[in-house]
Amino acid sequence: MTVQRADKAFFFTKDNCIDKTYELEKGIKMFPSIFIEGAAASGKTVAIKMFLEKQKDINFALFFMDKERDDGTFIRKLSQIRKRMEQETIWVICEDMNQPLSEIKATTLVDFVQRLQDKNRCIFVSREKPHRKFLELLWKEKMYMVTQKDLLFSINEIEQMRAEKQISVRAKEIYQETGGWPGCVSLMMRILERREETGEKISVAEVRECYEIAEYIESDILGTLSKLEKDFLEIGT
Predict the structure, then answer these.
(1) Alpha helices of 92-170 — where are they, by DSSP H?
(2) Rg, Å, the chain Cα set
(3) Using CA atoms, how far apart are residues 38 and 43, in angstroms rounded to an integer?
(4) pLDDT at 159
(5) pLDDT, tens digit, for every residue of 100-115?
(6) How far is CA 156 from the centre of its chain?
(7) pLDDT at 204
(8) Which of 63, 16, 12 is nearest to 190 (CA)?
(9) Higher pLDDT residue, 237 or 174?
(10) Checking phi first, is residue 41 left (phi over 0); if not, alpha (psi -120 to 50) or beta?
């Protein structure tokens, strides 16, 4: 866990990215906390990075929750942050909340959010649904939900990227083959751009079946989903 400026913590390229921070900006103004839920490669981390980059005057505490295994240590860190919040504005970012939270961690975080004052905020980023104790925050309007659907690219957003890169294939074709999943769209755009630069003719369907895309979908998307999620997920047609 570190406390630092948002623009100092992350480095990433905006190539093949669409600004999906509207829902985050809306939620952070109205609620003390936000829960961003989405499967792997659905654009959660890119969205939060782009969002934090805009917060030039905010310090934040970044937790990678899959590494915060000791409950007592985690609680002490939050207590230290709470004291600092009396003197400065800090946003707490809980990334990688992909493993079940212990009861004590969940209770501590709920209490932490309920006590937030002024412009202090807490943001949770997870592939899983909120812990049942977090439902209290939703019911009491202390938390705003940003879902996977909010993060996926629309045909119009893909068209914007396609036009900027002067890629000849239609945005609708890319959408049909990727389902609008940001990670998959981004990778497909890079491959199409490279192939067109070399003059190689290739269809979107052929790109979808190429090794880079197929392996990416299998390992980084499908490989992280539960059986139930896989039953409902459709990528490609």
Answers:
(1) 103-114, 135-139, 148-151, 155-165
(2) 19
(3) 8
(4) 92
(5) 899 999 999 999 999 9
(6) 20
(7) 76
(8) 16
(9) 174
(10) left
